Amino acid sequence: MSLSGREVVLGVGGGIAAYKACDLLRRLQDHGYLVTVVPTPAALNFVGKATWQALSNRAVYSQVWENVAEIPHIHLANNADYIVIAPATADLIARIAHGRADDLLTNVVLASSAKVLLVPAMHPQMWLNAATQENVETLKRRGMVVLEPDNGRLTGKDSGPGRFPETSRIISEFAEFTGASSDLLGRRVLITAGGTREAIDPVRFIGNRSSGKQGFALAQAAAARGALVHVIAANVSVPIPEGIEVSWVESAKQMQSDLEERFPNCDVLIMCAAVADARPAQVNEQKIKKDSLGSLSLVATPDLLATVAASKKQGQVIIAFAAETSDHIAQAQEKLSKKGADLLYVNDVTDGAVFGSDLTHGSIIDHSGIIARFIESSKDTLAHELLNQVVLRLS
After folding, report:
1. Can you give the residue ranges of the DNA/pantothenate metabolism flavoprotein C-terminal domain (predicted)?
2. What is the per-residue pLDDT across 181-211, written as a single tens digit (0 to 9) for each?
3. Which of 238, 261, 292, 313 has its CA 20 to 30 A from that of 326?
4. How many domains is the chain partitioned into structurally?
5. Which of 135, 208, 235, 347 is catalytic?
6. Active-site residue 151, yes or no?
7. What is the CATH number of the domain that holds 66?
8. E strands in 164-294
9. Of 391, 379, 20, which is closest to residue 182 (Cα–Cα)?
């Protein structure tokens, strides 16, 4: 999974159930999806564009001829991981089945290779009509997933099959449809990412090569599994995914202050940042001239992991990271036993490997030994395996 997240196009058809799609949008966001709403022009008679923009925090278009410079139907089609159409009216189902492209949504469906889930909602007689049933079978044969509507009261006194399903059912079906996991739903995950910098003077600092890629891979993976994620980021150089709360720090001391404030309220702490081990004993307020450069007196920075782990409450899970160039496992096990973490991932950073890369090389260990080894694996793969281990311990 890339750091851009799982993109969902939420298509909204022109039926009275359009208002129920507002809740569906919110629940998709709760599960870590990044949602762009594409209503049909008819749908805007029920829920206006301003509502969709406010809820999604994204621009909303319904016609191909809006914002033409961006070629919106191709942009949306290429970016979408999934398309959900809810409600899917009889008219919209018919137009998609016959390959029509007379508004933005139907253009996006035609242009995209993303998996499509349709949630029909209409009057019972329209749903049971032979034409609608044939159109539904056509879409199923093409690989689209079409939910059976619920049976119950609709508008007025009418009742029968055609009712918009409850949001919980749609989310459950969507999770099965995508193969996605929501095993961290509602859990609060706190992650440190990047590398701290300790000032020498206004232009120089002691730092390290950490880019923040692994930290934000973990953040995106946790959010995708339903977690509420906050990242304490130190000098990162990667794109920040939507839906992730971030606070920015520079030094180990600043990170410590933020950690101590947030740790008591989290379920999971992942200490992925590379924290500088030392800082200058004195910071010069003016730039040190080259001919005045000499020895540098250093003092140790706070041990952030040991400090927060000392206040760990029952039920909290802590994951630590280590970067080593020799005796990786032995040194990692010593750090794990001293620092009070539940799990540790040790990176093999020989010759500067791993830092700034999309790949990782190392091992996950706990107090019993090695759990898993990774050789040139993606940081996304490592993120999900670490979270699998977290889920085991939370449960």
Report:
1. 185-391
2. 678 888 999 999 999 999 998 888 988 888 8
3. 238
4. 2
5. 208
6. no
7. 3.40.50.1950
8. 188-194, 198-199, 205-206, 228-234, 245-249, 268-271, 278-280
9. 391
